[in-house]
């Protein structure tokens, strides 16, 4: 396991560093999963309880639940000062708090050969490697969401346990003490549950070594704004109108989605009333009395708020843990333009279209 990769914390050494002497970590997450707090706890444990020097900060857009978040941690020997606040572009370890980010974000961008990629997923490391194709990385998976649900906590402390084990140079007790001190100040009733979550994340991490030294490494693509002050349009105009039609909100879901049960539905429409993103797809049933019949959910626009589950009077919508392929198999897609054999706006069930 990862403990074999790195010296112990008692030696006061980092397993590897970049040209500036830093061991760098990047958390890829969405708002609401606690990645910022996880980075803060990890940095505090390293600096205050392990004798390292380090820094932590996060980067995010609008501060709301479901939006992408990156949290950065740097460690170095105590004799060295941390004088940079630049984002971590070439990390030694990346922890992905939300599996859906693998589809929408380049979470492994810049990860160094021999680095560690940890994903919150029920998949095995071998399955994750086949999915991503990264042969030169350590691949780890941990069911952080399942642990958090069982312990009634959040994903972040389970991911902290997995990251601590994968790093190898930071003693778990240092992180446990920091978790205890952090939660004791405001939420003393949550201390023990979060300590259990941390320990389970530490113990239940599955980690697989690289298959090759250089093959299958993620390419480094420097980030930056698409438009600068020299080429931005006057007035700050949006140059891709209609972009909300193409927006994929699935990454905003925090592990659960509503599943539609047609046999229970009475087509009352209450789910459509409370849905903030117009996710429900209907068809018009011809006849003497024309009426609207609910076909299902377009999961591309569903962010998993589950308001529809709460409002449904006949339990025709139920909350389920999102697994790989579930949303794709049950998605009901609406055609926004006329296609062969279809009128404009006529819905098509994705599974039927595939057949």
Description:
The structure is a single chain. By secondary structure, the protein is an alpha/beta fold. The chain has two domains: 2-208, Pyruvate-ferredoxin Oxidoreductase, domain 3, CATH 3.40.920; 246-354, 2-Layer Sandwich (Alpha-Beta Plaits), CATH 3.30.70. Helices cover 28% and strands 20% of the residues. It has twelve helices and 13 strands. Strands 2-3-1-4-5-6-7 form a seven-stranded mixed sheet, sandwiched between helices. Strand 2 and strand 3 (68-76) form a beta hairpin. The protein is globular, with a radius of gyration of 23 Å. The two termini are 44 Å apart. Residues 1-12, 337-345 and 350-355 have low confidence and may be disordered.
A few lines on this structure:
The protein is of the alpha/beta class and 355 residues long.
Keywords for this entry:
alpha/beta, 2 domains, Alpha-Beta Plaits, about 350 residues, Pyruvate-ferredoxin Oxidoreductase, domain 3, two-stranded antiparallel ribbon, disordered N terminus, 7-stranded mixed β-sheet, disordered C terminus
């Amino acid at each position: 396991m990862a403990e074999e990769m790195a010296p112990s914390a008692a030696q006061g050494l980092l397993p590897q560093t970049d040209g500036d002497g830093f061991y760098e970590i990047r958390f890829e997450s969405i708002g609401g999963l606690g990645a910022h707090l996880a980075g803060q706890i990890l940095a505090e444990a390293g600096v205050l309880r392990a004798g390292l020097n380090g820094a932590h900060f996060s980067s995010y857009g609008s501060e709301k639940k479901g939006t992408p978040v990156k949290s950065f941690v740097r460690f170095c020997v105590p004799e060295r000062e941390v004088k940079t606040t630049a984002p971590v572009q070439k990390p030694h370890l990346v922890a992905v708090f939300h599996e859906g980010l693998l589809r929408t974000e380049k979470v492994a961008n810049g990860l160094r050969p021999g680095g560690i990629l940890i994903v919150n997923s029920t998949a095995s490391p071998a399955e994750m490697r086949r999915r991503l194709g990264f042969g030169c990385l350590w691949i780890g998976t941990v069911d952080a969401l399942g642990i958090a649900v069982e312990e009634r906590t959040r994903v972040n402390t389970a991911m902290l346990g997995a990251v601590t084990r994968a790093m190898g140079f930071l003693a778990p007790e240092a992180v446990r003490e920091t978790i205890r001190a952090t939660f004791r100040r405001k939420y003393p009733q949550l201390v023990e549950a979060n300590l259990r979550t941390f320990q389970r994340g530490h113990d239940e991490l599955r980690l697989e070594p690289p298959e090759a030294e250089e093959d299958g490494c993620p390419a480094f693509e420097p980030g930056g704004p698409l438009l600068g002050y020299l080429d931005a349009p006057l007035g700050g105009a949006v140059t891709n109108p209609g972009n909300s039609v193409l927006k994929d909100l699935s990454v905003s879901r925090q592990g659960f989605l509503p599943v539609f049960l047609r046999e229970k539905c009475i087509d009352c429409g209450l789910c459509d009333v409370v849905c903030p993103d117009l996710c429900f797809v209907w068809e018009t049933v011809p006849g003497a009395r024309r009426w609207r019949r609910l076909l299902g959910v377009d999961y591309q626009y569903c962010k998993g708020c589950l308001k529809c589950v709460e409002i449904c009077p006949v339990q025709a919508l139920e909350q389920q843990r999102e697994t790989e392929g579930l949303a794709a198999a049950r998605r009901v897609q609406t055609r926004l333009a006329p296609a062969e054999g279809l009128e404009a706006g006529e819905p098509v069930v994705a599974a039927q279209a595939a057949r």
